[in-house]
């Protein structure tokens, strides 16, 4: 269940972060409320994941995947296309997550 909770936490964080721009500096109520709810849900789900996984590993996966997915959402919805350096950086982030998952003694499989 930990990986399901972690995936849902990532999705909630990506939705919340992707909507930050539409809050218009927290002056629009609906997107602001969605952002707050998404962050609360993401944090709650992370607490469930932390029952079984190390905090450093969980945070690395959550934040790394969040970076990549928020960048993808921004490219589609806001036309903020990452340059080559950003893409290389994200590949390195994902590579680091894969290395941790496959080789770290801190990971529960």
What does this structure look like?
The chain is an all-alpha fold and 109 residues long. It has helices at 2-19, 29-49, 55-77, 84-103. The mean pLDDT is 93. The termini are close together. It has one domain (2-103). α1 crosses α3 and α3 (55-77) runs antiparallel to α4.
Provide a compact summary of the structure.
The protein is mainly α and 109 residues long. The chain has helices at residues 2-19, 29-49, 55-77, 84-103. Helix 1 (2-19) runs antiparallel to helix 2, helix 1 (2-19) crosses helix 3 and helix 3 runs antiparallel to helix 4 (84-103).
List keywords for this structure.
single chain, 109 residues, mainly alpha, 0% strand
Q: What is the 3D shape?
A: flat
Tell how many strands the DSSP assignment holds: 0
Give the helices and strands as they follow along the chain. Answer: HHHH
Radius of gyration: 15 Å
Oligomer: single chain
Instruction: Tell me the domain tally.
Output: 1
Number of helices: 4
Helix share bin: over 70%
| Residue runs with pLDDT of under 50 for 5 or more positions | none
Structural class category: mainly alpha
Percentage of residues in strands: under 5%
Distance between the termini: 12 Å
* Biggest sheet overview: none
**Average residue pLDDT:** 93
């Amino acid at each position: 269940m930990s990986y399901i909770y972690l995936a849902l936490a990532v999705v909630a964080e990506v939705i919340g972060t992707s909507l930050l721009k539409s809050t218009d500096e927290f002056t629009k109520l609906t997107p602001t409320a969605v952002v707050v709810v998404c962050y609360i849900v993401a944090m709650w789900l992370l607490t469930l994941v932390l029952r079984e996984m190390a905090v450093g590993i969980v945070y690395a996966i959550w934040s790394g995947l969040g970076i990549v997915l928020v960048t993808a959402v921004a490219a589609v919805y806001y036309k903020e296309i990452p340059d080559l350096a950003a893409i290389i950086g994200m590949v390195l982030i994902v590579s680091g997550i894969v290395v941790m998952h496959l080789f770290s003694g801190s990971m529960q499989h």
